[in-house]
């Protein structure tokens, strides 16, 4: 009998670039699902998936927001694809200080794909009619690892990097008094 406690479910979204038509329905669905209240606004700049366009090759690349990083890379790779040069940043999913991608536009806080939390099917996959995004679940052995940071912790971490601990604590204290 297998030891279920040592297993985890890995949720994966596969991308088939040959099928992506650049309709950006995934961006709209993601931003609406994560709006507060849900579906009260549809703003792709708040989406956790963004479709990057390669004009030369007429290819669309859907990228899901990955980890927050406090510092941009100082050593980067470049790629040459069909004669056009790309940097690592072109296809990087990080919320990074070097660009505005995957940052909440009003607050600047990092956005990260949460696989639509407990939804059976991620919203971006649900609305992708051409079938460029497909969803899979599989079971894997669980490795001993650090617990992942939640959304609030990641947001606080980015504020601490940006403004420093004292300013963040003073602001929290002031806001708590206003309540
Ligand atoms: S919804 Fe699908 S086809 Fe449309 S841009 Fe997103 S990934 Fe591409
Ligand atoms: S966007 Fe990505 S690859 Fe580019 S500097 Fe930031 S973390 Fe590095
Ligand atoms: S899985 Fe959900 S949170 Fe992640 S990009 Fe798709 S719609 Fe957005």
Report mean pLDDT, rounded to a whole number.
87
Strand content: 15-25%
Per DSSP, the total helix count is: 4
Q: Let me know the largest β-sheet.
A: 2 strands, antiparallel
What does this structure look like?
It is a single chain. By secondary structure, this protein is α+β, with helices and mostly antiparallel strands. It has 2 domains: 132 residues, no CATH class; 31 residues, no CATH class. It contains 4 helices and 6 strands. The protein has a two-stranded antiparallel ribbon. The protein starts with 6 loop residues before the first strand and ends with a helix. The mean pLDDT is 87. It binds iron/sulfur cluster (3 copies). One iron/sulfur cluster binds next to helix 1 and helix 2.
Notable features of this structure?
single chain, alpha+beta, two-stranded antiparallel sheet, 4 helices, 23% helix, globular, binds iron/sulfur cluster
Q: Could you give a quick summary of the protein structure above?
A:
By secondary structure, the protein is an alpha+beta fold. Helix content is 23%, strand content 21%.
């Amino acid at each position: 009998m297998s030891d279920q406690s040592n297993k985890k479910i890995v949720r994966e979204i596969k991308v088939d670039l040959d099928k992506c038509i650049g309709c950006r329905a995934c961006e709209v669905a993601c931003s609406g699902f994560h709006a507060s209240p849900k579906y009260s606004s549809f703003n792709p700049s708040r989406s956790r998936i963004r479709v990057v366009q390669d004009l030369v090759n007429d290819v669309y690349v859907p990228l899901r927001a990955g980890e927050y990083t406090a510092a941009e890379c100082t050593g980067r790779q470049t790629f040459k694809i069909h004669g056009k040069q790309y940097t690592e940043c072109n296809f990087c999913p990080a919320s990074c200080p070097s660009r505005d991608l995957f940052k909440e536009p009003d607050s600047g806080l990092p956005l990260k794909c949460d696989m639509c939390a407990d939804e059976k099917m991620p919203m971006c996959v649900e609305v992708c009619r051409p079938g460029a995004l497909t969803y899979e679940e599989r079971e894997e052995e669980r490795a001993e690892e650090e617990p992942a940071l939640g959304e609030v912790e990641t947001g606080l971490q980015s504020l601490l990097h940006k403004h420093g601990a004292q300013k963040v604590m003073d602001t929290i204290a002031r806001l708590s008094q206003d309540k």
